[in-house]
Amino acid sequence: MPNTDLKLLIEAARSAGEIARGYFNTSPEVWEKSGGQGPVTEADLHVNRQLSADLQGARPDYGWLSEETEDGHGRLKTDRQFIIDPIDGTRSFIEGSKDWAHSLAVSENGVVTAAVVYLPMRDAMYTATLGGGASLNGAPLFAPKDKPIDTATVLSSKPNMDPKYWATTAPPFKRAFRSSLAYRLALVAEGRFDGMLTLRPTWEWDVAAGILIVSEAGGTASDQAGKTAIFNNPHPQINGTVAAGGIHAALIDALA
């Protein structure tokens, strides 16, 4: 039921945005996660509680995978799952940047069927359903067309340019950066950037929604080996993420 799921995700994302805006630029309490997994704020936890109430309350038979909820693996026995990052780009949130997002997705049999990436401080609601296209605030999205890779602009963190990741040398594209992986994917779907990549093991909640939005905008999204990402894995990570319009194949070919 992708269409009714999308409506539910949109409503939940707007509620989450209201909560997060209340903490923004107010010096919320911050903790460092164990294992070098980065910071979490009281806003992340409050948003997570609200999303759980809104989404699981409406679909109690769906599994639950969220960055801010301990994974009990009960989701593996369900037919459909919510895959949630309450605030993707927590460092940006803490620093006062507007480039953080709520990332909400529904998966079925390993495939994302409905997705929302919402940036409350920009009032930007990116949405998609499987086979139903992608949109930003209701306007259709179209990923960028083919172009020479050396004139492309790609969203990527600096460590991804290390020579060890590339077959010869990294292509001479222009590099740009946004903290939130979900937002990077949405910007590719919008056509504002030619591609994005992250070459480390990637948590499903960071990219599940964005990958569907790129695909439904006519782009291509895969892991770093060019394979289709499968979701709701026992260990919820995929092998990096590469998403782009026409330069996707060139990016994959250039990788080691």
Automatic annotation (TrEMBL):
The keyword Hydrolase applies. Its cofactor is Mg(2+). Mg(2+) binds at E67, D85, I87, D88, D206. Transmembrane segments: none annotated. InterPro entries: Inositol_monophosphatase-like, Inositol_monophosphatase_CS. PROSITE patterns: IMP_2 (PS00630). Coiled coil: none annotated. Its EC number is 3.1.3.25. It is an enzyme of class 3 (hydrolase). GO terms for molecular function: inositol monophosphate 1-phosphatase activity; metal ion binding. CDD domains: CysQ (cd01638). The keyword tRNA processing does not apply. One of its GO terms (biological process) is phosphatidylinositol phosphate biosynthetic process. It comes from the Bacteria. Keywords: Hydrolase, Magnesium, Metal-binding. It holds the Pfam family Inositol_P. Belongs to the inositol monophosphatase superfamily. PANTHER family: INOSITOL MONOPHOSPHATASE, INOSITOL-1-MONOPHOSPHATASE-RELATED. This is Inositol-1-monophosphatase. It comes from Octadecabacter temperatus.
